[in-house]
Design goal:
Elements lengths: L7 H7 E4 L3 E5 L9 E5 L11 H22 L3 E5 L15 E6 L23 H12 L3
Antiparallel strand pairs: 1-2, 2-3, 3-5, 4-5
Amino acid sequence: MNCPFCDKNVIKNNKIFETETEYVIYNIRTANKGQCLVVPKRHVTNVRDLTDKEAESLFRTVRLVSLKLQKCLKPDGFNYGFNEGKYSGQMVEHFHFHIMPRFSGDKLPEFHLFHRDPKSKRNLPKKEFKLAVEEFRKLF
């Protein structure tokens, strides 16, 4: 397997912190100062493959890292997230969670996870919305 997040040299050179279940590495293709990745030690390709323990630990680590970055860098905001699958933009087939500090005037494009125009006031029509809610409630 040729996975950079499983490569011991990549981890050794980029790791800034680790827990029992994940590494925190500095993003080699950073868009902003402080951008880190939280990477499970176990090779998994998507969020559904994480165990409950791994998922809980990962989110605790995301919180810890963002607290440290907030204290040190004092950003104006953060983008958090992950891409899953080729069509969403996942470039490394090893699940990883991005933490990106954002600064006023950082010249990066505004990022909206779901790519909806934030100025749009259009909501689903009530009937369509109600049907969608009913449909997805059945999944649970």
